[in-house]
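C-alpha cells please, single chain.
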Amino acid sequence: MFFTWDDVVQISREIRKMPKEELDEELRGWNWNDSVLASTRKALLGVSDITSGFCETGRDVYLRYNLKVKEKDNHILQSGRLIHDIFSRIIEKVKYLIYAHNGNIDGEIMYQEMINNIPTIWQEIKKKYTLLSEEYTEWIFRKLWNEAARVYSSALDKVKSRSPYLKVESLVSATIPVTTEFPINGELIGLSRTLRIDALLYPGILVEIKTRQQKPIFELSLAGYAMAFESQYEIPVDNGILLYIHIDWKNKRIYTKPEILPISAKLRTEFIELRDERKNTIIYNQDPGLPQKCPPECPFLYYCRGSQW
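Here you go.
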C-alpha cells in the first residue's frame, strides 16, 4: 500500500511480462475531438459518478443531478474515506518531514517523528468519522500509520546510503515516489474539470484505492482516468493499479491486493458507453428506474427503498 521505488521496479517488471495489446489511436485521450471519445460539454461527470457501482441502472446519477436528492452517509462509505484520508495524510507528512529538516533527517528521526505525530493526527481523524466506532477507527489509523512509518523510514535510510549528497527535492522523490489526489481536468472527454486520481505512482502509473467488495465496474474507473490524463497531458497510459484494501476487524488484520491492469480497448470502450448512458440520463431527465438489487453502501438507499431496507 505504501509504495517505494523497490515497488515501482517490481511493478515495472510485472508490466513488461504482460502481453502487449494493440490500441486504436481513436481510444487515446488526446484524440478527444474527432473520435468516439467526443462528448458534449453538458453534464460533466466525475469518474466516480460513472463507475461507483452503487446502482446498475445509474439511478444514483439521476437522483444526484436531476432531483438533487441529498446523499445519506453510512459506515461503509465512511470506512472507505477513512482509508483514503489516512493514506493521503501519511504521504503528505513523510514529505513534509523531509522538507522541514531540509533533508538532514535519517530513518530513526523520521520514524520517531511520525510516531510523535500520532496523538495530534488522531484527534483530527476521530472527529470526522462519527458513524464508525472510535475503537475501530483508531485501530485502523494506528496500524496504517505505524506501518508507513516503518516503510518510509527504511526507504529514507536506503536512499541516503546510496547517495548522501542529494538535494532535498531529490531526496523526497527518491524516498516516496507517490503523489496523492493528483488533479486531472477531464472536460475534453466530457468529464469533470476537477477529477482526482487517488495516487500517481512515478513515472506515470495511475493508482485507484478500493475498499469495497471487488466489482468489474471498478476496472472501468482506471480507463476513465487514463483517458482523461491522456487528454490533458498527452502522455500514454497503458496500465494502472487497482489497490484493493480489506479490513478484517474480527482478526485485526488489513489485507492489500494490488492488481495491475492493462487499460485495454475493451475497458476504454465500455467506459465511454457508460459515460454516454449516464450523461443522457441527466440531459434528457430520464429516471432509469430501480435495479433488482441495491448494495447496502448506496447513499440513496433510504430514498429508493425506504422502510423496505
